[in-house]
Amino acid sequence: MQRSDFYRPDHEQCQALLNGVEAAGRRVLDIYQRDFEVETKADQSPLTEADMASHHALVALLEELTPQIPILSEESGEIPFETRQGWKRYWLLDPLDGTKEFIKKNGEFTLNVALIEEGVPVFGIVHAPVLGISWWGQEGVGAWKVQDGQAAPINVRGLPNPEQAAWKVVGSRSHGSAEFEAFCAQLPRHERVSMGSSLKLCLVAEGAADLYPRLAPTSEWDTAAAQAVVMAAGGEVFNAHTLEPLRCNQQDSLLNPFFIACGQRSPQWEEALSYALNAVPTS
Ligand SMILES: Nc1ncnc2c1ncn2[C@@H]1O[C@H](COP(=O)(O)O)[C@@H](OP(=O)(O)O)[C@H]1O
Ligand SMILES: [Mg+2]
Protein backbone atom coordinates (compact mmCIF):
# COMPACT_ATOMS: atom_id res chain seq x y z
CA MET A 1 0.00 0.00 0.00
CA GLN A 2 1.34 3.43 -0.92
CA ARG A 3 0.66 6.10 1.68
CA SER A 4 0.55 9.79 0.84
CA ASP A 5 3.56 11.90 1.75
CA PHE A 6 5.50 8.78 2.60
CA TYR A 7 9.09 9.00 3.78
CA ARG A 8 11.08 6.11 2.35
CA PRO A 9 14.71 5.74 3.31
CA ASP A 10 16.47 5.37 -0.05
CA HIS A 11 19.16 2.77 -0.69
CA GLU A 12 21.93 5.00 0.66
CA GLN A 13 19.95 5.90 3.80
CA CYS A 14 19.07 2.23 4.41
CA GLN A 15 22.78 1.41 4.28
CA ALA A 16 23.61 4.32 6.62
CA LEU A 17 20.91 3.15 9.05
CA LEU A 18 22.12 -0.43 8.94
CA ASN A 19 25.74 0.65 9.47
CA GLY A 20 24.70 2.93 12.33
CA VAL A 21 22.65 0.26 14.09
CA GLU A 22 25.52 -2.22 13.72
CA ALA A 23 27.91 0.38 15.18
CA ALA A 24 25.57 0.79 18.16
CA GLY A 25 25.58 -3.02 18.40
CA ARG A 26 29.39 -3.00 18.74
CA ARG A 27 29.11 -0.63 21.72
CA VAL A 28 26.57 -3.01 23.28
CA LEU A 29 28.89 -5.95 22.61
CA ASP A 30 31.81 -4.20 24.36
CA ILE A 31 29.68 -3.93 27.51
CA TYR A 32 28.34 -7.50 27.11
CA GLN A 33 31.87 -8.85 27.13
CA ARG A 34 32.81 -7.27 30.46
CA ASP A 35 31.17 -6.86 33.87
CA PHE A 36 28.25 -4.44 34.05
CA GLU A 37 25.80 -3.17 36.64
CA VAL A 38 22.12 -4.14 36.49
CA GLU A 39 19.51 -1.68 37.79
CA THR A 40 15.80 -2.29 38.24
CA LYS A 41 13.39 0.13 36.54
CA ALA A 42 10.12 1.35 38.08
CA ASP A 43 8.24 -1.45 36.24
CA GLN A 44 10.66 -3.96 37.81
CA SER A 45 12.32 -4.73 34.46
CA PRO A 46 16.14 -4.71 34.33
CA LEU A 47 18.28 -1.91 32.87
CA THR A 48 22.00 -2.02 32.07
CA GLU A 49 24.47 0.57 30.85
CA ALA A 50 24.23 -1.15 27.46
CA ASP A 51 20.53 -0.17 27.14
CA MET A 52 21.52 3.48 27.64
CA ALA A 53 24.67 3.37 25.45
CA SER A 54 22.59 1.90 22.62
CA HIS A 55 19.80 4.42 23.18
CA HIS A 56 22.20 7.38 22.89
CA ALA A 57 23.96 5.94 19.83
CA LEU A 58 20.68 5.24 18.00
CA VAL A 59 19.15 8.62 18.86
CA ALA A 60 22.31 10.39 17.61
CA LEU A 61 22.19 8.35 14.38
CA LEU A 62 18.54 9.15 13.68
CA GLU A 63 18.75 12.81 14.69
CA GLU A 64 21.57 13.28 12.22
CA LEU A 65 19.90 11.35 9.39
CA THR A 66 16.32 12.60 9.75
CA PRO A 67 16.23 15.57 12.17
CA GLN A 68 12.58 16.24 11.24
CA ILE A 69 11.27 12.86 12.42
CA PRO A 70 10.48 12.47 16.16
CA ILE A 71 11.89 9.54 18.12
CA LEU A 72 10.25 7.39 20.75
CA SER A 73 12.57 5.02 22.59
CA GLU A 74 11.93 2.60 25.43
CA GLU A 75 14.56 4.62 27.30
CA SER A 76 13.47 8.13 26.29
CA GLY A 77 10.97 8.62 29.07
CA GLU A 78 7.27 9.14 28.71
CA ILE A 79 5.94 11.24 25.82
CA PRO A 80 2.26 12.13 26.37
CA PHE A 81 -0.29 10.67 23.98
CA GLU A 82 -1.49 14.20 23.15
CA THR A 83 1.97 14.85 21.66
CA ARG A 84 2.32 11.45 19.99
CA GLN A 85 -1.14 11.69 18.45
CA GLY A 86 0.10 14.52 16.25
CA TRP A 87 2.91 12.39 14.80
CA LYS A 88 2.29 11.24 11.23
CA ARG A 89 5.53 9.29 11.37
CA TYR A 90 8.17 8.61 14.01
CA TRP A 91 11.07 6.34 14.84
CA LEU A 92 10.33 3.73 17.50
CA LEU A 93 13.35 2.20 19.26
CA ASP A 94 14.07 -0.61 21.61
CA PRO A 95 17.78 -0.01 22.21
CA LEU A 96 18.17 -3.43 23.86
CA ASP A 97 15.38 -5.94 23.41
CA GLY A 98 15.87 -9.01 25.55
CA THR A 99 17.69 -7.35 28.42
CA LYS A 100 17.14 -10.48 30.51
CA GLU A 101 18.94 -12.54 27.85
CA PHE A 102 21.73 -9.93 27.73
CA ILE A 103 22.17 -10.32 31.49
CA LYS A 104 22.10 -14.13 31.21
CA LYS A 105 24.71 -13.82 28.43
CA ASN A 106 22.99 -16.19 26.04
CA GLY A 107 23.28 -13.78 23.08
CA GLU A 108 19.53 -13.68 22.38
CA PHE A 109 19.08 -9.91 22.41
CA THR A 110 18.60 -7.36 19.66
CA LEU A 111 18.63 -3.65 18.84
CA ASN A 112 15.31 -2.67 17.24
CA VAL A 113 14.70 0.38 15.03
CA ALA A 114 11.28 0.88 13.40
CA LEU A 115 9.78 3.63 11.30
CA ILE A 116 6.08 4.00 12.02
CA GLU A 117 3.87 5.68 9.45
CA GLU A 118 0.25 6.38 10.44
CA GLY A 119 0.47 3.60 13.02
CA VAL A 120 1.95 1.04 10.61
CA PRO A 121 5.53 -0.26 11.00
CA VAL A 122 6.73 0.35 7.43
CA PHE A 123 10.48 -0.10 7.90
CA GLY A 124 12.47 -2.00 10.48
CA ILE A 125 15.97 -3.12 11.39
CA VAL A 126 16.63 -5.81 13.99
CA HIS A 127 20.29 -6.37 14.81
CA ALA A 128 21.67 -9.21 16.95
CA PRO A 129 25.26 -8.23 17.87
CA VAL A 130 26.36 -11.60 19.27
CA LEU A 131 25.09 -13.46 16.20
CA GLY A 132 26.47 -10.78 13.88
CA ILE A 133 23.16 -10.81 11.97
CA SER A 134 20.76 -8.03 10.98
CA TRP A 135 17.30 -8.43 9.50
CA TRP A 136 15.66 -5.51 7.80
CA GLY A 137 12.59 -4.90 5.73
CA GLN A 138 10.60 -2.15 4.13
CA GLU A 139 6.98 -2.11 3.06
CA GLY A 140 6.65 -2.61 -0.68
CA VAL A 141 10.38 -3.23 -1.10
CA GLY A 142 11.32 -6.53 0.57
CA ALA A 143 13.17 -8.07 3.50
CA TRP A 144 16.77 -9.18 3.93
CA LYS A 145 19.04 -11.02 6.32
CA VAL A 146 22.53 -9.52 6.47
CA GLN A 147 25.45 -11.59 7.70
CA ASP A 148 29.19 -11.11 7.07
CA GLY A 149 28.39 -8.15 4.85
CA GLN A 150 26.19 -10.30 2.58
CA ALA A 151 22.47 -9.46 2.27
CA ALA A 152 20.16 -12.33 1.29
CA PRO A 153 16.46 -11.77 0.57
CA ILE A 154 14.13 -13.56 2.99
CA ASN A 155 10.54 -14.74 2.80
CA VAL A 156 8.15 -16.43 5.18
CA ARG A 157 7.41 -20.06 4.42
CA GLY A 158 4.11 -21.77 3.71
CA LEU A 159 2.73 -23.67 6.66
CA PRO A 160 3.63 -27.36 6.26
CA ASN A 161 1.01 -30.08 6.42
CA PRO A 162 1.41 -31.16 10.06
CA GLU A 163 1.02 -34.81 9.03
CA GLN A 164 4.20 -34.45 7.01
CA ALA A 165 6.19 -31.95 9.07
CA ALA A 166 5.59 -30.49 12.53
CA TRP A 167 4.83 -26.79 12.67
CA LYS A 168 7.60 -24.79 14.29
CA VAL A 169 6.28 -22.55 17.06
CA VAL A 170 8.52 -19.99 18.75
CA GLY A 171 7.95 -18.70 22.27
CA SER A 172 9.67 -16.45 24.77
CA ARG A 173 12.57 -17.87 26.75
CA SER A 174 11.85 -15.73 29.82
CA HIS A 175 8.19 -14.62 29.57
CA GLY A 176 5.91 -17.60 29.03
CA SER A 177 2.21 -17.61 29.96
CA ALA A 178 -0.59 -20.02 30.75
CA GLU A 179 -2.44 -18.65 27.69
CA PHE A 180 0.50 -19.52 25.44
CA GLU A 181 0.57 -23.06 26.86
CA ALA A 182 -3.20 -23.46 26.43
CA PHE A 183 -3.04 -22.18 22.85
CA CYS A 184 -0.20 -24.51 21.89
CA ALA A 185 -2.03 -27.46 23.46
CA GLN A 186 -4.76 -27.01 20.80
CA LEU A 187 -2.43 -26.80 17.80
CA PRO A 188 -1.78 -29.68 15.42
CA ARG A 189 1.58 -31.48 15.62
CA HIS A 190 4.26 -28.91 16.29
CA GLU A 191 7.64 -28.41 17.89
CA ARG A 192 8.48 -25.54 20.20
CA VAL A 193 11.58 -23.36 20.17
CA SER A 194 12.33 -20.91 22.97
CA MET A 195 14.09 -17.70 22.05
CA GLY A 196 14.61 -14.24 23.53
CA SER A 197 13.71 -10.85 22.03
CA SER A 198 12.68 -9.98 18.47
CA LEU A 199 14.63 -12.97 17.19
CA LYS A 200 11.36 -14.93 17.35
CA LEU A 201 9.73 -12.65 14.79
CA CYS A 202 12.88 -12.75 12.64
CA LEU A 203 12.70 -16.56 12.57
CA VAL A 204 9.15 -16.29 11.22
CA ALA A 205 10.28 -13.67 8.67
CA GLU A 206 13.07 -15.85 7.31
CA GLY A 207 10.89 -18.97 7.11
CA ALA A 208 12.66 -20.82 9.93
CA ALA A 209 9.53 -20.81 12.13
CA ASP A 210 5.82 -20.88 11.36
CA LEU A 211 4.14 -19.23 14.33
CA TYR A 212 4.87 -16.90 17.20
CA PRO A 213 1.83 -16.66 19.49
CA ARG A 214 2.60 -13.90 22.03
CA LEU A 215 -0.17 -14.35 24.55
CA ALA A 216 1.64 -12.29 27.18
CA PRO A 217 2.44 -8.58 27.51
CA THR A 218 4.88 -6.70 25.31
CA SER A 219 5.30 -3.04 24.39
CA GLU A 220 5.19 -1.55 20.93
CA TRP A 221 8.97 -1.00 20.83
CA ASP A 222 9.49 -4.73 21.43
CA THR A 223 7.73 -5.71 18.22
CA ALA A 224 7.45 -2.87 15.68
CA ALA A 225 10.82 -3.28 13.92
CA ALA A 226 10.50 -7.04 13.56
CA GLN A 227 6.83 -6.69 12.58
CA ALA A 228 7.99 -4.51 9.64
CA VAL A 229 10.44 -7.26 8.67
CA VAL A 230 7.81 -10.02 8.96
CA MET A 231 5.32 -8.07 6.85
CA ALA A 232 7.93 -7.14 4.23
CA ALA A 233 8.80 -10.87 4.06
CA GLY A 234 5.15 -11.75 3.32
CA GLY A 235 3.94 -12.60 6.83
CA GLU A 236 1.46 -11.13 9.27
CA VAL A 237 1.39 -9.94 12.86
CA PHE A 238 -2.17 -9.62 14.10
CA ASN A 239 -4.15 -8.92 17.23
CA ALA A 240 -5.15 -12.32 18.66
CA HIS A 241 -8.53 -10.95 19.70
CA THR A 242 -9.64 -8.85 16.70
CA LEU A 243 -7.41 -10.56 14.08
CA GLU A 244 -6.53 -7.05 12.78
CA PRO A 245 -2.87 -6.21 12.00
CA LEU A 246 -1.02 -4.83 15.01
CA ARG A 247 -0.81 -1.02 14.94
CA CYS A 248 1.25 1.43 16.98
CA ASN A 249 0.43 4.69 18.74
CA GLN A 250 -3.35 4.25 18.77
CA GLN A 251 -3.87 4.98 22.46
CA ASP A 252 -2.31 6.26 25.64
CA SER A 253 -0.88 2.86 26.56
CA LEU A 254 2.10 1.58 24.59
CA LEU A 255 1.35 -2.02 25.53
CA ASN A 256 0.52 -4.38 22.68
CA PRO A 257 -2.54 -6.58 22.75
CA PHE A 258 -1.84 -10.32 22.72
CA PHE A 259 -0.81 -11.12 19.15
CA ILE A 260 0.15 -13.87 16.75
CA ALA A 261 2.80 -13.69 14.05
CA CYS A 262 2.62 -16.15 11.18
CA GLY A 263 3.94 -16.73 7.70
CA GLN A 264 1.62 -17.47 4.82
CA ARG A 265 -1.95 -18.16 5.85
CA SER A 266 -3.69 -21.32 4.66
CA PRO A 267 -7.17 -22.80 5.21
CA GLN A 268 -5.62 -25.32 7.58
CA TRP A 269 -4.04 -22.52 9.60
CA GLU A 270 -7.30 -20.53 9.76
CA GLU A 271 -9.06 -23.59 11.11
CA ALA A 272 -6.34 -24.37 13.66
CA LEU A 273 -6.19 -20.72 14.70
CA SER A 274 -9.88 -20.38 15.45
CA TYR A 275 -9.89 -23.72 17.23
CA ALA A 276 -6.88 -22.81 19.36
CA LEU A 277 -8.12 -19.28 20.08
CA ASN A 278 -11.52 -20.58 21.13
CA ALA A 279 -9.77 -22.53 23.83
CA VAL A 280 -7.90 -19.48 25.09
CA PRO A 281 -9.47 -16.30 26.41
CA THR A 282 -7.24 -13.51 25.08
CA SER A 283 -6.99 -9.87 26.05
N1 LIG B 1 4.74 -7.65 32.03
C1 LIG B 1 5.26 -7.07 30.95
N2 LIG B 1 4.76 -5.90 30.50
C2 LIG B 1 5.27 -5.31 29.39
N3 LIG B 1 6.28 -5.84 28.65
C3 LIG B 1 6.80 -6.99 29.06
C4 LIG B 1 6.33 -7.67 30.22
N4 LIG B 1 7.07 -8.81 30.37
C5 LIG B 1 7.96 -8.81 29.34
N5 LIG B 1 7.79 -7.74 28.56
C6 LIG B 1 8.55 -7.36 27.38
O1 LIG B 1 9.04 -8.53 26.77
C7 LIG B 1 10.32 -8.22 26.25
C8 LIG B 1 11.15 -9.46 26.21
O2 LIG B 1 10.56 -10.32 25.31
P1 LIG B 1 10.95 -11.85 25.28
O3 LIG B 1 10.40 -12.48 26.51
O4 LIG B 1 10.25 -12.28 24.04
O5 LIG B 1 12.44 -11.91 25.17
C9 LIG B 1 10.92 -7.22 27.19
O6 LIG B 1 11.73 -6.37 26.40
P2 LIG B 1 13.06 -5.64 26.98
O7 LIG B 1 14.08 -6.68 27.18
O8 LIG B 1 13.36 -4.69 25.88
O9 LIG B 1 12.61 -4.94 28.24
C10 LIG B 1 9.71 -6.49 27.75
O10 LIG B 1 9.53 -5.24 27.14
MG1 LIG C 1 12.13 -5.04 24.38
TrEMBL record:
EC number of the protein: 3.1.3.7
Matching CDD domains: CysQ
Chief localisation class: membrane
A cellular component term, taken from the record's GO annotations: plasma membrane
Keywords: Cell inner membrane, Cell membrane, Hydrolase, Magnesium, Membrane, Metal-binding
Binding site for Mg(2+) 2: D94, D97, D222
Domain of life of the native organism: Bacteria
Cell compartments where the protein resides: Cell inner membrane
InterPro entries recorded: CysQ, CysQ/Inositol_MonoPase, Inositol_monoP_metal-BS, Inositol_monophosphatase-like, Inositol_monophosphatase_CS
GO biological process: 3'-phosphoadenosine 5'-phosphosulfate metabolic process; phosphatidylinositol phosphate biosynthetic process; sulfate assimilation
Binding of Mg(2+) 1, residues: E74, D94, L96, D97, D222
Sequence positions that bind substrate: E74, L96, D97, G98, T99, D222
Cofactor: Mg(2+)
Assigned protein family: Belongs to the inositol monophosphatase superfamily. CysQ family.
This protein's name: 3'(2'),5'-bisphosphate nucleotidase CysQ
Organism name: Litchfieldella anticariensis (strain DSM 16096 / CECT 5854 / CIP 108499 / LMG 22089 / FP35)
